[in-house]
Design goal:
heterodimer; A: 176 residues; Glutaredoxin; 2 domains; 4-stranded mixed β-sheet; 4 strands; B: 436 residues; alpha/beta; Rossmann fold; Ubiquitin-like (UB roll); de novo design (two linked rop proteins); 4-stranded parallel β-sheet; 19 helices; 42% helix; binds flavin mononucleotide; binds iron/sulfur cluster
Chain lengths: 176, 436
């Protein structure tokens, strides 16, 4: 008996044209469909913010691999979110150089200012706080990454300034 | 800085890296041209072998020897026509290590030229750069450089009409330390959950998609153009007898000038720390250091004269690893430092082997207890026992032994600190208001 994984109804109109084009591009580069798993997850996450169960099933069907296998991949990586996240995801480095150079005080300042703990999102949906392993900027410790942007030499003061700047930019955007 | 003294970094510009044209004006791709047109792959392999180049990804394995383990087939053997793969390991995620990022962001074309040379020597038809997901700027610049190289016929079919063809693609990962282990990396590239593979077979025999595969670190590969441009003798004169070439050293922690320096292989720890990194920050003294990333054994102030080459560091009881010093000062708590490192390994363990999956969180639990002043003296014995359980030969990959190295050396060197935590029921560093 053969099972056509592609017959899963979800996949037919779940993924957008844009997503499919981007995934198809990866399919051309990589040698197997399975090898596009991470890229496909990232492509969909970029559009939707996170990977829901529906997204997961749709991607798996599109790649013609079992959902369980894709789930195994998705949950393996720190940068694939299997829960909704805020508009900005704060990835603060909690590895050793940052630890030696004042990480504790910086993360406390973030938690206090936003009133969230690790893994939580602010009630306005703006910020999610996650820890990250060494961001490769140990000479500028402590550091964090928000939206692909690296922020270095953090202090409890300047980290709050950075968050406020992001908030202010966002408020302006909404007002316009 | 000249190409002769700083071969790897003399063209680095992190703000505005050379594009294809600029790189060519600096004699870029000249070495690749020389290799493609003047050497047979076998001759070029001999050059790499005799250069004494060793892997800069942590293990220090001789590069030429690694390549020579690729199987050789008679021409009429169908396996001779099967693809071979070259993979550049750019998953840099070892805490305290940031050297590859410099090369990736600062001189992307050098890596591509290096991969053409390596690919030609090993007979690869396809190559991948496996880049860690967090390195967004590097991803942008490497992709741009790849596109330029394709346009200029330095990649793709029949490179510069040499008859050699190479497809090169960038793969960006999504954040998991174990992907840097070469067999886990291969699983990751295949789109599978990135647990390491049992060895043998080694990747040279059965790697990506079951085909012969070579995995090398960014810095390792980046040496190739310079070895061919300036010769084996020049390469060897940088280093003591057992080693060759320059090394990108790093230093971080509470020191005056944290950063990266390309230096002759074998500079002493003291010179690196005091002359280049400017010594400790005001009011702090050196307590210890990890010489090559988070998974190496501690060394002490008494080791400042030790040369930073593979053999000397090994003789002193540690490993050169990635060559990045992580410096512990006298006002940071060594127990907290080891706990932080163990937390990293517990989180990043892939979970395949029991000693690692269960041992790292167990060690973390004990370290947490001790740091909070709730430990007992038997906890120290327990930690030593865990070190034995997780040591080389008991797990599928080197992550667990890597977690043991800082822990066991800290237990040996900083015994008094551990005991003080236990006897005083608190962290003496926090007590003195010094922590962090
Ligand atoms: C847990 C673990 C993580 C590793 N991470 C990296 C890495 O990020 N980059 C790297 O080049 N090598 C890493 N390695 C070493 C690789 O397995 C491999 O030895 C190396 O890429 C070989 O390249 P080289 O011979 O050029 O050093 C890691 C090894 C282990 C066990
Ligand atoms: S030692 Fe740890 S990381 Fe390595 S394979 Fe075993 S469980 Fe996975
Ligand atoms: S330890 Fe934080 S960037 Fe490396």
């Amino acid at each position: 008996m053969t099972i056509d994984l592609n017959s899963n109804l979800l996949t037919l109109d779940y993924l957008t044209e844009q997503e499919k084009i981007a995934i198809d591009h990866e399919l051309q580069i990589m040698e197997t469909r399975e090898a596009c798993s991470i890229e496909a997850l990232k492509i969909v996450q970029l559009q939707r913010g996170w990977i829901s169960d529906d997204s997961l099933h749709a991607i798996a069907a599109y790649l013609r691999i079992p959902s369980a296998d894709l789930e195994g991949v998705a949950t393996f990586y720190n940068l694939i979110y299997r829960q909704p996240v805020g508009k900005y995801v704060i990835h603060i480095c909690n590895s050793i150089s940052c630890h030696l150079c004042g990480y504790d005080a910086v993360v406390s300042a973030i938690k206090n200012y936003l009133a969230i703990e690790y893994g939580q999102t602010t009630s306005d949906g703006m910020f999610t706080l996650l820890s990250n392993a060494c961001l490769g900027a140990c000479d500028q410790a402590p550091v964090m990454m928000i939206d692909n942007q690296l922020y270095q030499s953090l202090t409890p003061q300047n980290v709050v300034d950075i968050l406020q700047t992001l908030q202010a930019a966002d408020n302006k955007g909404v007002g316009r | 800085m000249t190409p002769l003294t700083h071969p790897l970094t003399h063209l680095v510009d992190v703000n505005n890296p050379l594009n294809f044209k600029g790189y060519c004006q600096q004699k870029g791709y000249a070495a690749a041209k020389k290799v493609l047109f003047e050497y047979t792959p076998a001759e070029a392999l001999d050059t790499v072998k005799s250069s004494g180049l060793k892997g800069r990804g942590g293990a220090g394995f001789p590069t030429g020897m690694k390549w020579s383990f690729l199987p050789e087939f008679e021409e009429d053997d169908p396996r001779a026509k099967e693809p071979k793969y070259l993979i550049c390991n750019a998953d840099e995620m070892e805490p305290g290590t940031f050297k590859d990022r410099l090369l990736l962001e600062g001189v992307p074309h050098q890596l591509i030229e290096s991969m053409i040379i390596a690919g030609y020597i090993i007979g690869a038809t396809r190559a991948y750069i496996f880049l860690r997901g967090e390195y967004h700027l590097a991803a942008k610049r490497i992709q741009q450089a790849i596109d330029e190289a394709y346009q200029a016929s330095w990649l793709g079919n029949d490179i510069q009409q040499s008859g050699y063809s190479l497809e090169l693609h960038l793969h960006t990962s999504a954040g998991r330390y174990i992907c840097g282990e070469e067999t886990a990396l291969i699983n990751a590239l295949e789109g599978k959950r990135a647990t390491p593979r049992a060895k043998p077979p080694f990747p040279q025999v059965a790697g990506l998609f079951g085909k012969p595969t070579i995995v090398n670190n960014v810095e390792t590969l980046s040496n190739l153009p310079h070895i061919f441009a300036h010769g084996v003798e020049w390469f060897q004169q940088h280093a003591p007898e057992s080693d060759a070439g320059t090394k990108i050293y790093g230093a971080c922690g509470r020191i005056k000038i944290p950063g990266l320096w390309e230096l002759p292989m074998g500079v002493s720890i003291g010179r690196l720390l005091n002359d280049h990194a400017g010594g400790m920050c005001e009011g702090l003294a050196l307590k210890g250091l990890l010489p090559g990333g988070a998974s190496t054994d501690f060394l002490l102030p008494e080791h400042l004269d030790v040369a930073m080459d593979y053999d000397s560091i090994a003789k002193a009881g540690s490993r050169l690893g990635t060559g990045g010093l992580i410096v512990l000062d006298d006002k940071n708590c060594p127990v907290a430092m080891v706990k932080n490192i163990m937390q990293f390994f517990a989180q990043e363990s892939c979970g395949w082997c029991t000693p690692c999956r269960d041992g790292t969180p167990w060690a973390l639990e004990i370290l947490t207890r001790i740091e909070q002043g709730k430990g007992t003296l038997t906890d120290i014995d327990e930690l030593y026992r865990l070190c034995d359980f997780m040591w080389i030969g008991k797990t599928h990959c080197a992550l667990a032994p890597g977690a043991v190295e800082p822990l066991r050396s800290a237990l040996n060197y900083f015994t008094d600190d551990f005991i003080q935590h236990i006897e005083e029921h608190c962290c003496p560093y926090q007590q003195r208001g010094h922590h962090g």
